[in-house]
Amino acid sequence: MIDHTLLKPEASEADIKKLCDEAIGYRFHSVCVNPSYVGLARQCLENSGVKVCTVIGFPLGATTTRAKVSEAIDAVENGATELDMVLNIGMLKSKNYDRVLNDIKSVVGESKKLKEGILVKVILETCLLAKDEKVKACELALEAGADFVKTSTGFSTGGATVEDIKLMRNTVGPNVGVKASGGIRDLKTAIEMIEAGATRIGASSSVKIINEL
Asked: Contact, 204 vs 182, CB < 8 A?
């Protein structure tokens, strides 16, 4: 259930190789790395069963749709099978819902054209949204054909909360994934998120969490 994550800008090639080794050893679902490391992660994880996840429009979500689509295509061609894209938060707050919908739909559509089985997760950055905006963001992600909604980048003012996970699960229903990420550093917090409805955990403290278990 865990996406073993390292998105720090100073992460080195050695750090990514260690991340991949840990993911294989602990049987994590995926590693989540910045786009420039997708190719390296793919090589390290070949035939291991661990997926390669990367981020799109990260961490602000404020790039153009064309830029996000280009990033997504590049990531898939380099070996990513899961894409965590940041929605356009400013457009959501401006109630420009058509633009937000098109943004997500374009990334979903173009990436899935390239390769069967690609998963797209939409990062809402819940700490910046009011309750009605969180609901609307989930509805737009659902309408656009996204596979998951995700709480946070881990680079803003807050991370995942139990209340947000419950709200997101209630909004998207049982058939869409909910990823809790941001501030999940121990087993107790991870279990609380799962019990609230999360089906995936994004964490950089994954090894610590499993060792607690």
From this structure: no
| Token digits of residue 191 | 């279990």
Domains in the chain, number: 1
**Which of 108, 127, 32, 35 lies closest to 65, judged by CA?**
108
Which CATH number covers residue 157? 3.20.20.70
| Confidence (pLDDT) at 65 | 98
Q: Which residues belong to the active site?
A: 84, 150, 179
The candidate with the shortest Cα–Cα distance to 126, out of 187, 185, 171, 81, is 171
Contacts with 87 (C-beta within 8 Å, 6 or more apart), sequence order: 61, 100, 103, 104, 122, 123, 124, 125, 137, 140, 141
Give tens-digit pLDDT for 170-207.
999 999 999 999 999 999 999 999 999 999 999 999 99
Q: Which long-range contacts (CB under 8 A, 24 or more apart) does 63-71 make?
A: 65/99, 65/102, 65/103, 65/106, 65/107, 68/103, 68/106, 68/107, 69/106, 69/107, 69/110, 71/35
Stated as kind and residue range, the H or E segment containing 71 is helix 65-78
Q: Which domain holds residue 38?
A: 2-212
Quickly tell me which residue has 């509805």 as its tokens. Answer: 139
CA atoms of 162 and 55, how far apart (whole Å): 23
Tell me if the pTM is above 0.85.
Answer: yes
Contact 154, 179 (CB under 8 A): no
HSE value, Cβ hemisphere, 13 Å, CA-based, for 55? 26
Which one-letter amino acid corresponds to residue 116? Answer: E
